[in-house]
Amino acid sequence: MSGTTITQPRPHTCAPSRAARELELKRGEFDLAVHLGRIRTVPDEGGGGGRRIEHAEIDRLRAQDGFPEVLRDGVRAVGTTEGAKIMNVPVTRFTRLARLGLVVPVKYYLNRYRAVVWLYLAQELEEFANDEKNSFLLTGRTPEVLRAQLTAGVDLRARNWRGRHLGFLLRLAEEPWHRAGAVAAFLDPAHVADVVRDPYERSHLNRFRPAPPTHGAPGSPSAHLAQEIMTASDQDEIGWLRNDLARAVEEARGHRPAPSPAPRGEAPATPHSAPLAQHRATAAPRRASAPETSVAPEQPRRLLGWLRRRSPRPPCSEASGRAAV
C-alpha cells in the first residue's frame, strides 16, 4: 500500500510582524516604511480588517542593492536636535524652519510630560540642506516675511503632518467609502454632520473613519491630545477638507448607497381591520385640525361670560363644546 504525502502550500502573504523580521526592520521602521509607500501591502483576505504583505514583495525588497541598510536609511526618523545636526544649523533655526512648514514631520510621539515630539526623515533633511536654493534659509538673517509669520504665531507642523497622514490613508483606501472616511477623520464631527446631513450615511461613513495613531488608553489625556493633533484647526484647511469630503461622499453614494432601514410596511388588510382603518382615516383629520373660531385666543373667557349673561339657562352643549376648546 503506497502512501501519499500532502504538503500544505505556502501562504502567499504574511503578517506585518513576520515581514518586519524578514526585512530586518524594527516594527516602528516597518510601519513607517508602509506609511511612506516603501513597502506595499494588501488587504487581509481573512476578514480581519488589517493589512498583510506578499512574499513576493519581501523577495523584491531583499533583492535590492544595499539591503537592508538602504531600506533602513530611507525610514530613519530623527528629532529636532539630531535634525539640526544633519542640517548643520542651530536647534532654534531648525525649529523655525519646521514651524514655517519648510521641513515636514513624518510622525510624532508624546513624551512622559505629554509634550509633542516631532520626527523628521533624515533623508529629506539631508536633501533640503544640500539644495543650494535653500542656502539663504540656513545661514544669515531670516527673511522679514518669514519672521513676521513666526511673530504672528505660525506653526504648520501639525497641519503638514495631517496632510502627509491623509495621503497615507488614501493610499490604503480600497473603495470610495474608505476614501470618504479617511477625509472625515481630520474634521470635527460637527463639520462632518454639516456636510453629510443624512444620519444613515453619517453612521456608514464613521465605520471607515480611521482613528488617530495610538497614544495612550482611550479617553486618556494623551488620547485627547492625539485627537486634537488629528483634527484640522485652520479655517482654510477645514474648508478644503469639507469640499473634499462632499466630493468623496458624492462619489461613494454613486458607487454604493449607504444602507438605511427599509420603510415600514402597512399591515395586511383583514375584514375586521378594514372598518377600523376607515374610521381612523376619517377621524384623523378632525383630530389634527383645530376648530375654526372668529375670536382671538385671549377672548374665550369674555365670550363665555357674554353667553351666560345672554341666556337665563346654561349655554347649549354645542356652544359649551366650542368654548371649552
Q: What is the secondary structure topology, with strand pairs?
A:
Blueprint lengths: L12 E2 L1 H7 L4 H9 L6 E2 L7 E4 H8 L6 H6 L2 E2 L1 H8 L3 H9 L7 E4 L5 E6 H9 L4 H4 L5 H8 L5 H16 L3 H9 L4 H7 L3 H8 L14 H10 L4 H21 L17 H16 L11 H11 L6 H8 L1
Helix pairs in contact: 1-2, 5-6, 11-15
Offer a few descriptive terms.
single chain, mainly alpha, three-stranded antiparallel beta sheet, disordered C terminus
User: In percent, how much strand structure appears in the residues?
Assistant: 5-15%
How many strand elements? Answer: 6
Specify the structural class.
Answer: mainly alpha
Low-confidence stretches: 266-304, 310-325
**How many individual helices?**
18
Describe this entry's structure for a reader.
Helix 1 (16-22) crosses helix 2 and helix 5 crosses helix 6. With 325 residues, the chain is mostly helical. Helix content is 54%, strand content 6%.
Short description:
The protein is mainly alpha-helical.
